[in-house]
Amino acid sequence: MQPLIDNARTFGQRPEEFARLAEGQSPDVLFITCSDSRVVPALITGARPGELFELRTAGNIVPPYASGHPTAEAATVEYAVQVLGVSDIVVCGHSHCGAIGALVRGDDLGAVPAVRDWLAHAADEPAVSDAADPACADAVQHHVLAQLLRLRSYPCVEQRLASGRLRLHGWYYEVHTGAVREHRAATDAFEAL
Ligand SMILES: [Zn+2]
Fold first, then answer.
1. How far apart are the C-alpha atoms of 128 and 10, rounded to whole Å?
2. Based on CB atoms within 10 Å of each CB, which residue in 117, 148, 168, 170 is the most buried?
3. What distance in Å separates the CA atoms of residue 9 and residue 6, rounded to the nearest whole number?
4. Distance (Å) from CA 57 to ligand 1 centroid
């Protein structure tokens, strides 16, 4: 923890770089990814403060949209789309994901009931059995596509897609290499960016 505190103490020593941020934010991209510490969106994309609006959840899960049942995830997506007017949403899954691995292996999550209930509520059953692959690449990639489908069911997303003002992207990030792959509709495969 101490190195993080030391860095935070000196981070604000470039006031000229940050002063303009007081005027507001207008990010172009909503970046949805896992809470995993190995995934650092600003490092992967090179984004500066103000450029990425982020939603991080266990397993980069986009829960089902349910009006009358507010969730932080739906609020974040809606704000990004309706208020900030982002033009692109990236759902970025990653290799060696603990959440997806637990689903694939059928782990007993009794010791972490909140995790168990979140996955049970929000995640679909893994579409492929990836138990022999520690990266769970196929399962994660299928999972990313399932989250993109979920996003399409959000009313604000559906509207913006219909009017051509929003694009969705599925990414797969390898924590052990740093490589990023994007789902290509033409081949229905995740290929190098
Ligand atoms: Zn993860």
1. 46
2. 170
3. 5
4. 8
Q: How far is the CA of 93 from the centre of ligand 1 (A)?
A: 7
Distance 23 CA to ligand 1 centre (A): 33
Query: Measured between alpha carbons, how far is 186 from 180 in angstroms, rounded to an integer?
Result: 18
Structural contact between residues 50 and 25, judged by C-beta atoms closer than 8 angstroms:
yes
Distance (angstroms) between ligand 1 centre and the Cα of 7 equals 25
> What pLDDT does residue 162 have?
97
CA distance 58 to 36: 8
**Which parts of the chain are beta strand (E)?**
29-34, 52-57, 88-94, 167-173, 180-184, 189-192
pTM of the model: 0.94
DSSP 87: S
Token pair, residue 135, equals 């990266």
pLDDT, one tens digit per residue, over 25-70 is: 999 999 999 999 999 999 999 999 999 999 999 999 999 998 788 8
Upper half-sphere CA count for residue 101 (Cβ side, 13 Å): 12
Distance 115 CA to ligand 1 centre (A): 12
27 C-alpha to ligand 1 centroid (Å): 24
